[in-house]
Design brief:
It contains 10 helices and 6 strands. By secondary structure, the protein is α+β, with helices and mostly antiparallel strands. The chain has a 6-stranded antiparallel beta sheet with strand order 1-2-3-4-5-6, with no helix packed on it.
Length: 453
């Protein structure tokens, strides 16, 4: 039996890696398409781009591993069923639950690993990726001059070079308009020169040859000065052209960048404030208005005095209750938001177990291990599962369902479906097997016709 279990596990390795890497590739492609405009033209080094992608791989892996489990179980048990190896193993005395037990054990280990990964690695990776993307967005595009084109990349300066040699940074026919001084405009012209960036002091160094500087005072046409030079050195501000790293403590962490313990502290603190607000509202509603105390202190009050006291008293009471209600709603929403994220850190990893439970009987029933049918089934479960997650999160944020149910609803539904399949497959109920087999036969036939097979 031990050899049979190892034999089954060996068939899982290839499909699991393929399915996981395929989903990671799709997420990576989506990331590059979304943030491509933020990376292109910034003069970023390959290391910076690779580092950013590596940090984003953390959340991709968390989402891809459950899909890899589903894909591998469908493929493996579909292949073993189509070649009647499962039938031979059952004939040798092995039950269906014994055959799938190693897969379930591996899925439990993956669940434990992803819970640890979600709590320790993912928050830090998300935070570092957020800081790096923030720094990249702040970075100016790489300074460059094009022949015959005006450049305004340096603040308060407009630069024109008639001819640019990109290999040597050489310039010909240069004109620089200096607008940094509101009282005086400087126009610098030179026959030739070159420009280099000095990263140590974040300056752009222009060395110009054979030219003139024309200094003009606005609205005073007679007040100008022309200075000729053979060689002139200019140091212009180059700050922002290099990638400046922001200290980690300056950017706050969101719920997806925090560990479970830290989020739980926020939830407990928010619930405590909610309880305090509820208690204050209860006291405000049960405490007698001041008008009764005033009436007891004085034997009589005229009508206008009573009306004014009532008006002021209840207006103050309304403002107090309204303030507490807003405070209560705000902290209750905050507690729900972090509770949803806590439950998500457990629910998504547990999908490894759920997908293993549903993938094994489905693969056995389908008796098909081809890529088309397996990918179609995996995609269907993926769409359904993420629809449950996204919809559940929105319902939890609105207070319609609990944070626990919002994140575990997809797992509960798929788990219930898997139990039905497991019982039916184990007892080989011919009615349901026939119906499901007919469904998979139709899907396979449709796939073959679509591909002209």
């Amino acid at each position: 039996m031990k050899l049979i279990k190892l034999y089954i596990l060996r068939f899982h390795i290839g499909p699991f890696l393929f399915g996981t890497l395929l989903v990671v590739f799709l997420f990576l492609f989506q990331l590059l398409m979304r943030d491509l405009d933020k990376l292109v033209g910034k003069g970023l080094s390959i290391w910076v781009i690779v580092h950013l992608i590596t940090l984003n791989l953390a959340w991709m892996v968390v989402l891809a591993i459950p899909m890899g489990v589903l894909f591998s179980t469908l493929t493996t048990f579909g292949n073993l069923s189509s070649t009647f190896e499962i039938t031979a193993m059952k004939s040798g005395g092995a039950s269906f639950f014994q055959l799938i037990s190693p897969v379930i054990i591996i899925s439990l280990l993956l669940f434990a690993f992803l819970v640890w990964f979600n709590d320790r690695v993912l928050p830090e990776a998300n935070h570092q990726a957020k800081i790096m993307l923030f720094d990249i967005n702040r970075k100016k595009p790489t300074f460059s001059l094009e022949s015959g084109q005006f450049s305004t990349q340096i603040e308060n300066y407009t630069i024109l070079a008639r001819k640019v040699d990109s290999a040597s940074n050489g310039l010909s026919g240069i004109t620089i308009y200096d607008l940094s001084n509101s009282r005086q405009t400087n126009t610098i012209s030179a026959d030739s020169g070159y420009v280099v960036f000095i990263p140590q002091i974040e300056k752009l160094r222009f060395l110009l040859f054979n030219g003139e500087v024309l200094q003009v005072v606005p609205f005073e046409p007679k007040n100008y000065k022309k200075i000729y030079f053979k060689e002139l050195e200019l140091l212009l501000e180059g700050k922002g052209f290099t990638l400046e790293r922001t200290p980690e403590g300056l950017i706050s962490r969101s719920d997806r960048e925090m560990r479970i313990k830290d989020m739980q502290n926020i939830v407990d603190e928010s619930k405590k404030i909610v309880e305090e607000s509820e208690e204050r509202i209860r006291k405000l509603l049960t405490t007698p208005p001041k008008i009764f105390n005033k009436a007891q202190e004085e034997n009589k009050l005229d009508g206008e005095a009573i009306f004014e006291l009532i008006k002021n008293d209840f207006s103050y009471l309304e403002n107090q209750i309204t303030t507490e209600m807003f405070r209560l709603a705000d902290y209750d929403s905050r507690a729900r938001q972090y509770e949803v994220e806590i439950q998500k850190k457990y629910a998504i990893p547990f999908a490894c177990v759920i997908f293993a439970l549903v993938g094994c009987p489905l693969g056995l029933i389908s008796r098909r291990g081809n890529f088309g049918v397996t990918a179609a089934i995996s995609l269907g479960f993926y769409i359904f599962y993420w629809a449950c997650l996204i919809g559940g999160e929105k319902l939890a944020d609105r207070g319609i369902i609990s944070p626990f149910l919002s994140m575990w609803l997809g797992n509960i539904i798929i788990f219930s479906f898997s139990l039905v399949l497991l019982v039916r497959v184990n007892y080989e109920n011919s009615i349901i097997l026939t119906k499901i087999n007919n469904l998979f036969y139709f899907l396979t036939k449709f796939h073959w016709r679509k591909n002209g097979l």
